[in-house]
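From the pipeline queue, job 12 of 40. The input is one protein chain; the requested action is below.

Action: predict structure.
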Amino acid sequence: MTDAVLKTPTLICGGRCRTQPEVLERAGRLGAAVLDAGVGRGDKCVIMARNDIEFLEVSVGVAATGANPLPVNTRWTASEVAHVLTDANVRMIFAHTEFVPVVEAACELAASDARIVEIGMSAELLAAGRWDSRLVEPTGRHELLEEVIAAQPDPVGHIEGAIADSMGVIYTSGTTGKPKGVAREKMMPQQLLTIAGSNAQRAGLAPGVPMLVAGPLYHTSPNALAVLGLRMGADIVIMPKWDAREFLRLVQAHRIRQVKIVPTMISRILSVPAEERATYDLSSLTHVIHSAAPCPPALKRAAIDLFGDALWEFYGCSEAGTITWISASEWLTHPGSVGRPADGSAVLIADEHGNPLPAGELGRVYVRGADYWPRFEYLNLGTPPSPVPGMLWVGDLGYLDPDGYLYLTGRDSEVVIRGGVNIYPAEIENALIALQDVEDVAVFGVPDTGDLGEAVAAHIQPRPGIHLTESAVRKALSSQLASYKVPTHIRIVESLPRDDSGKVHKRQLQTDYTAGHSMTSGAEMA
């Protein structure tokens, strides 16, 4: 047994450190308080908070009672939070001081009497995230998490079936519409163990393994891996806010082995000058996993050059879990693929009527979860209809190659129809991100001023210190794309409106064009 396994696991965030036993004990006392508040099996509790140790304590504490912890995006407005409060009949809300005004307004909009517990923000967290230092002072309008925990002398005891009950509902990200509650059938103990074991094995988690939480804990994948790592006794380092140089520093300082990132983060890491990146020792990494958004081939090749065989990718969805996996070596022989179905999951490419399409032909990507994945329906909406029995379409388009590897070409809702011709934004984004001066890009359809229906718009973020012009972009694209695919509108912007999980909010960009003007800059990843 190694020293890493023998030592007490820790959680570190923004300069603060707690041992795993301390975190679990605090979570248990919070669970006792949740039960005392009359909240338990099947009830819903919203979490609106920055990445912090307390986020995991609340998640585990709520789950210990059988209630559902529902993390929500910290960028959401009051109306978006109100939708979840109403849709899920939320009983309690845990919010960092920064977000108390948002949840208060959401409660008013939803006519909700949900109990609000305020999570104080430490000076260390605010400094690490470069947020307003005045947020260290609580609002004084609600009970504080520390007070709630301190009032409970003993942690909640074991409640049979509570963990299964706590996983009953999860919300989709809502980047293409209102978030939908995915209500899962209750899982049996063996199911839970199988899911945990499979995720741990594929993600490289084990007792004592140093893992880095780089993505937002409100997003499903980083949250699930962090909670699993906590329960397994991993050493967890949480990044309060994404920063490429801080990522490199933390990997070296803590000898990180496992981390989950998204393609946008990869691009930001590659924007750090190569000679500077080379000063960091990344050799400890064994599992660098990415998903959540398409990864352009040029970016993927650069990521493999940087991380080697440690790089893994999966494709999945909230409804059906992880569907495909692909290693770095597999990708090099099937460039552009997101992998093959794993653990009994399935992929079918078919038309809108459910008729199967041959290899290489583009169609809807119908999926079925792994053998152990629970069935589901949408909360308050029922089971989604599908022309393929037992399979689900969540809006993705793609094709399979003769070896059964899946390639994604975009989402149906994003296809641009110009003069009756379908144009796929992902193809143009891949060409743009391959340009060495481009760090980030979003391509989308906007109303055409003539009679062609839609025009293609591209918002491009250069790498730091680079001066990029529209004419230079057009010249570079002219040799790679058919003329009708070259964007009509090209804007060089300072940043794009991506959330912390890497998803770009194209509807936000499209709204500006619909309103008669184009956006010149977006919001940075928080």
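Job complete. The mean pLDDT is 91.
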